From TrEMBL:
Protein name: Leucine-rich repeat-containing N-terminal plant-type domain-containing protein
SUPFAM superfamilies xrefs: L domain-like, Outer arm dynein light chain 1, RNI-like
Membrane topology field: Single-pass type I membrane protein
Compartment(s) of residence: Cell membrane
InterPro entries on file: Leu-rich_rpt, Leu-rich_rpt_typical-subtyp, LRR_dom_sf, LRR_N_plant-typ, LRR_R13L4/SHOC2-like, RLP23-like
Organism: Eucalyptus globulus (Tasmanian blue gum)
Keyword Nucleotidyltransferase in annotation: no
Any one cellular-component term (Gene Ontology): plasma membrane
Length: 926
């Protein structure tokens, strides 16, 4: 039986070989040896994603006819005309003398998805003068694209996209000979010029893709008139301006992608017959034309992040082919469209961050194919019924007023739900269905009214998948049955801040990188933190934690943000860094810490913020901090620091410092002129268009799946308690432009150095309650941004310099309790200061003091013209009202946090939309 089968097979194979040799001539030996030589110039590296090493089967001995080799095509004369080695695991470089360039009959060459090891594309392709199709995309090539490719005037398709670091120096020259071209893809090549206008003459063009090519200037409208153009993708060219023309749509355009460009204007009434439309993150405006509803083939519409207005046109009900619709963040208003019931193909839908009002129509819950549903940040209400949405993966309902239907059966929960955002949804309890979800990765329930303990059933189904939990800003009191070992091995991100948890510190699972349980009533020690070896952000501030700081914190070499402020920690600061230190922020304020500032901090070269205020640290001034050139804020206030700050030998380099608060210590000696001199950041006035805050951006891995690394960027603001205008306040964030020096309540003696007048961007200066003598230097008049100046409780003498009336922003001024004399300057801001500002200076006279100045010298009051300036409110004052803690607790904090949540969600969304877009592209291609 077996031998019979063998005979049969042999016979079939023989028959096939005879047939093959009769059908076409064998390939030419010079071409087969050129191919073999090409093969041997590469290694095979199978690590490239899903590659197939076609060349491995090539051999001169077995069936030597190269025309039958995998990836090789011949014409009827046996000449090699096509070579498709895309995704073939090739690793190596192509050189100018490569045998590839001997295959002079090649018409089609595809080497995409290989690894050319970041090498440049050689000269030589210009020899292959019959080439019609050339594809080197995704192949790790770099450098200038060789100009001899421009000779290939028969090219029909050219794809050099997504190399590594490719450059085309003169794109108009480069493409000018390609008059037959139908498809062009130069995406991710640095072109850095205006759009190549010569393309407008190539009437065969069907597809043009120049994504992320650093194009600038004005996009030529004539491209829209190309008679055969179906695909135009020029997205991610931030400086490319243009508009969509109202008429002259000569082309049968199917796919138009302009996202992240500088395109503006309105969407015209007539917009062809598109299948794919992506205009997000541009500057489009106006209302959405109802005619968009005529795009009966439209499958993908993303017009998010523009500045439209008005309602969603009712005609959208006719877009029944839509599978992707993003109308997020485009300033729409009005009711939720009732007309989406027929959009049954939607794989998701995003209407987030608009101003939509009212009930969500029940028909929404009938859209069975939805995978992504984003309704965040509207004013929607209603009941959510997920039981038909079996494909749902991402649900964003945060910042609405929404409740859930009460069905708890397993069958009603979307089996694939992985990302659930229900922040600020007015929830009073944990939604029951959470416990039945089996693939939950991220859950965010912040800013609700959920009280009681955190139930263990919540992770019944998703114990092995949960990586991200945000329960912050609720009224949670603890963990069910005191279980504070979280049984979540994949957990990366845990935020339970701003609750009323009264338990011991829950132990973070080992992979946790973000751990924030600040603003609770946690008690006991913090040793259990040592189990987490991947921490990047650790915030346990504002609790009642006691005991010592464990030295293990010095071994967590990923730690960037350490905030243990406002607890009852005692002992010394043990932070030693045997493995190096990447800390950017250390906040240990308001504890009971003693001893010295650890010298090992000098290894933390990225440190931007150091707050040791309100402890019992007994040390001299840590001069060596000046090695940390990134430092922006140093706060040592209310400790037992002592001694002089500088000696004749001191050298300082605090060139980036914005805030130096050494108040309420026992420093003595002269005021440190050399220190002031090193504050270079305080010497320049930088004008900013918008208010920016002192903060740091942390990249946090979103998933523990290392083969698919997604990070999100979290902005962490530097908060601090500051003394402003005589009142101490807690600021949750501090404007970047605030420059402050506070040396008050020490024992500094001697004069105020003139050099302070060089710190031109100083906003607050406090030298009060020292033993300073001499006069007030007139150079202070150069601090034109100064808002608050406190020199009270010293032994200053002489007159108040008249020049100080130039300080237009000065709203708080205190020189009381000194020995000043002469006339108080008059005019401008000085007209607004009260008696208290000048009290207890025997020699002072003039308004607001009752004592008149008898001798009128040259200190005449300024002319009243300057007084118009009095109403000027400081640029800071206005905006700071938003961020003050203590007053109006609810709104400002919610607002601030709300914003950061929005950013993060958008990050995730972008990522998701790329997956969907990719899916669409794949479908579209086949
Ligand atoms: C294969 O490619 C991977 C990734 O580029 C690289 O790390 C590895 O060293 C390569 N292997 C060989 C044998 O070249
Ligand atoms: C265009 O092709 C012609 C003829 O092949 C050649 O002489 C010329 O140099 C090419 N132009 C460019 C810019 O390469
Ligand atoms: C949908 O299209 C039909 C046919 O073109 C039209 O009659 C109808 O008014 C459209 N619906 C809406 C809501 O615009
Ligand atoms: C949805 O489709 C049905 C059936 O084709 C039609 O009767 C209904 O009017 C459509 N609804 C909307 C809002 O267009
Ligand atoms: C939801 O469940 C609670 C008990 O868990 C019950 O008291 C309430 O009536 C239910 N609501 C609805 C709408 O079924
Ligand atoms: C920490 O506080 C707890 C009470 O909350 C107390 O029992 C314990 O002794 C304190 N530990 C230290 C080291 O002070
Ligand atoms: C203010 O600065 C200018 C130059 O920056 C300097 O010439 C002038 O003397 C300073 N004024 C005072 C009062 O020190």
């Amino acid at each position: 039986m077996a031998s019979l089968l063998y005979a049969l097979l042999t016979w079939i194979v023989l028959l096939m070989m005879i047939h093959a040799s009769l059908a076409k001539p064998l390939c030419h030996p010079d071409e087969s040896s050129a191919l073999m030589e090409f093969k041997s110039s590469f290694q095979i590296n199978r690590t490239y994603f899903h590659c197939v090493p076609k060349v491995e089967s090539w051999s001169l001995h077995r069936l030597g006819d190269c025309c039958s080799w995998d990836g090789v095509q011949c014409d009827t004369n046996g000449h090699v005309t096509g070579l498709d080695l895309s995704n073939s695991c090739l690793f190596g470089t192509i050189t100018a003398n490569s045998s590839l360039f001997h295959l002079l009959r090649l018409e089609s060459l595809n080497l995409a998805f290989n690894d050319f090891n970041n090498s440049s594309i050689p000269y030589g392709f210009g020899n292959l003068s019959r080439l019609q199709n050339l594809n080197l995309s995704y192949s790790k090539t770099s450098g200038n694209v060789p100009s001899d490719i421009s000779l290939l005037s028969r090219l029909i398709s050219l794809d050099l996209s997504r190399g590594w670091n490719l450059v085309i120096p003169n794109v108009n020259n480069f493409v000018q000979n390609f008059t037959m071209l139908r498809e062009l893809d130069l995406s991710y090549i640095s072109i850095s010029s205006p759009f190549p206008h010569v393309l407008a003459n190539f009437s065969s063009l069907k597809s043009v893709k120049l994504v992320n090519s650093r194009l600038h200037g004005e996009f030529p409208v004539s491209i829209f008139q190309l008679p055969n153009l179906e695909v135009l993708d020029i997205s991610v060219n931030y400086n490319l301006s243009g508009s969509i023309p109202e008429q002259q749509w000569g082309s049968p355009l199917k796919s138009l992608s302009l996202w992240r460009t500088n395109f503006s204007g309105e969407i015209p009434i007539s917009i062809g017959n598109l299948v794919f439309l992506s205009l997000s993150e541009c500057h489009f405006s106006g209302s959405l034309p109802s005619s968009l509803g005529n795009l009966s083939q439209l499958a993908h519409m993303d017009i998010s992040n523009n500045k439209f207005h008005g309602h969603i046109p009712a005609s959208f009900a006719n877009l029944t082919e839509l599978s992707f619709l993003d109308l997020g963040d485009i300033q729409l208003s009005g009711p939720f469209p009732s007309s989406f019931e027929n959009l049954t193909r939607l794989v998701w839908l995003r209407l987030s961050y608009n101003n939509l009002q009212g009930e969500i129509p029940n028909s929404l819950w009938e859209l069975k194919n939805l995978e992504f549903l984003g309704l965040s940040g509207n004013n929607l209400s209603g009941t959510v019924d997920l039981h038909k949405l079996n494909n749902l993966e991402v649900l964003q309902l945060d910042f609405n007023n929404i409740s859930f239907v009460n069905k708890t059966e397993i069958s009603t929960t979307p089996p694939n739900l992985s990302h659930l955002y229900l922040d600020s949804c007015n929830l009073h309890e944990f939604p029951k269905f959470l416990g039945y979800l089996r693939k939950l990765d991220s859950v965010s329930l912040s800013h609700n009214n959920i009280g009681g303990s955190i139930p263990m059933w919540m992770w019944n189904g998703s114990r092995e998948t949960l990586s991200h939990i945000d329960l912050s800003h609720n009224t949670l009191t603890g963990f069910e049955n005191g279980h504070n070992d979280l049984p979540l091995p994949k957990l990366l991100h845990l935020d339970i801040s701003s609750n009323i948890l009264k338990t011991e510190l829950p132990s973070p699972p080992p992979l946790t990188n973000y751990y924030n349980i600040s603003n609770n009533i946690l008690f006991g020690g913090i040793q259990s933190i040592c189990g987490a070896r991947s921490l990047i952000v650790l915030d346990l501030s504002n609790n009642s934690l006691n005991g010592t700081i464990p030295s293990c914190l010095g071994n967590i070499d990923s730690l960037s943000i350490l905030n243990l402020g406002k607890n009852k920690l005692e002992g010394t600061i043990p932070l030693a860094y045997p493995k190096g230190c990447v800390l950017k922020m250390i906040d240990l304020t308001e504890n009971r810490l003693q001893g010295l500032v650890p010298r090992s901090l000098v290894n933390c070269s990225m440190l931007e913020y150091l707050n040791l205020g309100y402890n019992q640290i007994l040390d001299g001034f840590p001069l060596w901090l000046s090695k940390l050139t990134e430092l922006k804020a140093i706060i040592l206030k209310s400790n037992k620091f002592h001694g002089p700050i500088e000696t004749y030998r001191s050298h300082f380099n605090f060139s980036n410092l914005h805030i130096m608060d050494l108040s309420s210590n026992s420093f003595n000696g002269e005021l440190p002129s050399k220190l002031f001199q090193s504050f270079h950041a305080m010497k320049v006035v930088v004008h900013q268009d918008k208010l920016e805050y002192m903060n740091t951006h942390e990249e946090l891995p979103l998933s523990s799946n290392t083969s698919f690394l997604v990070v999100w960027e979290k902005v962490l603001d530097f908060g601090m308690k500051l003394m402003s205008k005589g009142i101490e306040r807690e600021y949750s964030k501090v404007p970047y432009a605030l420059k402050e020096i506070d040396l008050s309540n020490n024992k500094f003696k001697g004069c105020i150095p003139d050099i302070i007048g060089d710190l031109k961007s100083l906003v607050w200066l406090n030298l009060s309650n020292n033993i300073l003598t001499g006069s007030i230097p007139p150079s202070l008049a150069n601090l034109t941004l100064l808002e608050s100046l406190d020199l009270s409780q010293n032994n200053l003498s002489g007159e108040i310099p008249q020049q100080l009336v130039q300080l237009n922003f000065l709203s708080s001024f205190d020189v009381s309790h000194n020995q000043l004399s002469g006339a108080i300057p008059q005019g401008s801001q000085f007209n607004t200061f009260k008696i208290d500002s000048f009290a207890m200076n025997e020699g002072l006279c003039g308004s607001p003091l009752p004592k008149n100045c008898t001798i009128v010298g040259d200190n005449l009051p300024l002319p009243p013209s300057l007084e118009e300036e009095n109403d000027k409110e400081s640029p800071f004052n206005l905006d700071w009202k938003v961020v003050l803690i203590g007053t109006g607790l609810g709104f400002p904090i919610g607002f601030v946090l709300g914003n950061s949540i929005i950013d993060e969600k958008n990050m995730w969304f972008l990522h998701y939309s790329k997956i969907i877009a990719g899916r669409w592209n794949r479908l579209g291609r086949h």
